[in-house]
């Protein structure tokens, strides 16, 4: 085996691809012929190919198992189940289907209107001094009334 | 790459699926069902799990039909999804334990039958034992090496495509395959 013969540089990590492709019969005829001439002269590569051929044969013997008959049915069911919520979420697609482009100019005009004419907060006119005094007096009267009620109780 | 994708029949079918033709999805399923299930079976070593994962692969393909763009070969995308799902499954410690127990169940039963002289033909049993050796040798490979070998051997993919599926460089794939086949040569040295 390879232990008894010096390892050929073709078996290095960089070049082993050539031997692997040869074993897999994936090399073009020209390269196959060149490599074949090398293999005839190189016992190390012959040993490498023999052991690789064993691996290849072993992998070839691993046949495929039959697939369940209901594979497609189950898949279609899963697709259907997956699609079902889409009906419930139909509003999303309905909203997405609406073209919002015509509404954009109207929205822009409205935005400009709001910026140009901001709504003023409705504030009460300021009270003059006499009115303020009247309010103060009214509040004092209320206080007095409350105190009277408390005293009578 | 885009030019190559245009020539890709699968990409054409997928574009039909994107346009709402469900018959094209059936055609894609027919073309790739077997390879995906068999690849996943060899990755996870369990037929039921492989089929479940394969359904998930096709479900994901179907779900992403609306956003599909033929920027790469369809099979690269297909096997990328398959590989990722297999990696995730293998990464799950619980599943790995189940996998080990399944292997343990399979291996001794084959040997037991061999020594029990069950009525089956000897060559069939020998074949089963050898098959277990192969399964065992593949199962002992790290997940990425395993995926690379399966794509190289059974799907006959080029190094460049395996690299795209695994999201690594071509030289990294060469290295993965070199190490994987080296391990297999050692483990299957007695296989003849």
Give an overview of the whole structure.
The complex is a heterodimer of chains A (153) and B (192). Chain A is built from seven helices and no strands. Chain A is mainly α and 153 residues long. Chain A has a domain at 10-60. In chain A, helix 2 (29-41) packs across helix 3 (43-60). The longest helix of chain A has 24 residues, at 129-152. Chain A is rod-shaped. Chain A starts with 15 loop residues before the first helix and ends with a helix. In chain A, 9% of the residues are buried. Chain B is mainly alpha-helical and 192 residues long. Chain B has ten helices and no strands. In chain B, 80% of the residues lie in helices and 0% in strands. The relative contact order of chain B is 0.11. Chain B folds into three domains: 1-91, RNA polymerase sigma factor, region 2, helix turn helix motif (Rna Polymerase Sigma Factor, Chain: A), CATH 1.10.1740; 93-139; 140-192, Orthogonal Bundle (Arc Repressor Mutant, subunit A). Chain B is globular. Residues 108-117 of chain B have low confidence and may be disordered. Classes of the chains: A mainly alpha (153), B mainly alpha (192). The A-B interface holds A 13-14, 16-17, 20, 24, 26, 51-52, 54-59, 61-62, 64-65, 67-68, 71-72, 74-75, 78-79, 82 and B 29, 33-34, 37-38, 41-42, 47, 51, 54-55, 58-59, 62-63, 127, 130-131, 133-135, 137-138, 149, 152-154, 156, 159, 174-175, 177-178, 181, 184-185, 188-189, 191-192.
Q: Summarize the main sheet of chain B.
A: none
Helix content of chain B: over 70%
Estimate percent helicity of chain A.
55-70%
CATH class descriptor of the largest domain in chain B: Mainly Alpha
Structural class of chain B: mainly alpha
Rg of chain A computed from alpha carbons, rounded to a whole number of angstroms: 47 Å
CATH topology of the largest domain in chain B: Rna Polymerase Sigma Factor, Chain: A
Count of DSSP strands of chain A: 0
H/I helix tally of chain B: 10
Spatial extent as radius of gyration of chain B: 19 Å
How many separate domains make up the residues of chain B? 3
């Amino acid at each position: 085996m390879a232990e008894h013969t010096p390892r050929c540089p073709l078996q290095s990590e960089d070049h082993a691809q050539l031997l692997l492709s040869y074993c897999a019969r994936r090399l073009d005829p020209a390269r196959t012929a060149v490599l074949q001439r090398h293999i005839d002269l190189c016992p190390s590569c012959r040993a490498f190919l023999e052991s690789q051929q064993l691996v290849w044969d072993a992998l070839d013997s691993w046949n495929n198992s039959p697939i369940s008959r209901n594979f497609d049915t189950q898949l279609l069911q899963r697709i259907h189940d997956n699609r079902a919520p889409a009906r419930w979420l139909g509003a999303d697609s309905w909203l997405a289907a609406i073209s919002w482009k015509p509404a954009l100019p109207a929205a822009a005009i409205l935005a400009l209107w709001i910026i140009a004419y901001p709504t003023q907060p409705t504030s009460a006119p300021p009270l003059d001094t006499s009115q303020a005094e009247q309010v103060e007096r009214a509040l004092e009267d209320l206080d007095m009334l409350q105190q009277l009620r408390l005293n009578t109780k | 790459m885009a030019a190559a994708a245009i020539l890709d029949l699968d990409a054409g079918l997928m574009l039909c699926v994107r346009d709402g033709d469900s018959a094209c999805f059936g055609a894609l399923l027919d073309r790739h069902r077997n390879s995906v299930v068999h690849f996943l079976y060899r990755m996870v070593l369990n037929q039921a799990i492989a089929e479940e994962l394969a359904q998930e692969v096709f479900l994901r393909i179907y779900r992403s039909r609306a956003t599909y763009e033929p920027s790469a070969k369809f099979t690269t995308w297909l096997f990328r999804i398959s590989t990722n799902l297999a990696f995730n499954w293998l990464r799950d410690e619980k599943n790995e334990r189940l996998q080990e127990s399944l292997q343990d169940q399979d291996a001794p039963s084959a040997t037991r039958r061999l020594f029990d002289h069950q009525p089956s033909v000897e060559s069939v049993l020998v074949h089963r034992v050898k098959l277990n050796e192969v399964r065992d040798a593949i199962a002992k490979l790290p997940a990425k090496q395993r995926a690379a070998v399966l794509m190289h051997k059974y799907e006959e993919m080029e190094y460049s495509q395996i690299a795209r599926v695994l999201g690594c460089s071509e030289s990294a794939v060469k290295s993965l395959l070199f190490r994987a086949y080296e391990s297999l040569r050692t483990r299957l040295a007695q296989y003849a």
